[in-house]
Specification:
Mean pLDDT: 91
Radius of gyration: 19 Å
Low-confidence stretches: none
Order of helices and strands: HH
Distance between the termini: 35 Å
Shape: elongated
C-alpha cells in the first residue's frame, strides 16, 4: 500500500511515545517510521473497505454453491 513512487519528506511531530510503542508491538514493525507508515496505510485501507461495504448494502448476492459441503 506504500506509495513507492513518492519521495518521503522529513517531518517533525510531537507524538506520545507510549502510543508509538504500542502500535509498533501490535504491527510488528522494525522502526518508528515503519510503524507510522503502516498505521497510516491501515487508516486509508479501512476507509476504502468501509466505502466498499457501504456500496454493497442492499445488493442481493447470488449463492454459487448448491448448499452442500464439499
Amino acid at each position: 500500500m506504500a506509495d513507492t513512487d513518492e519521495t518521503p519528506l522529513r517531518k517533525n511531530y510531537r507524538l506520545h511515545q507510549s502510543k508509538i510503542d504500542r502500535a509498533r508491538k501490535v504491527l510488528g514493525t522494525r522502526t518508528e517510521t515503519d510503524t507510522i507508515e503502516q498505521a497510516l496505510d491501515l487508516v486509508t485501507f479501512g476507509e476504502a473497505l468501509r466505502k466498499g461495504v457501504d456500496a454493497m448494502r442492499g445488493v442481493e448476492l447470488e449463492d454459487i454453491f448448491d448448499g452442500s459441503e464439499p
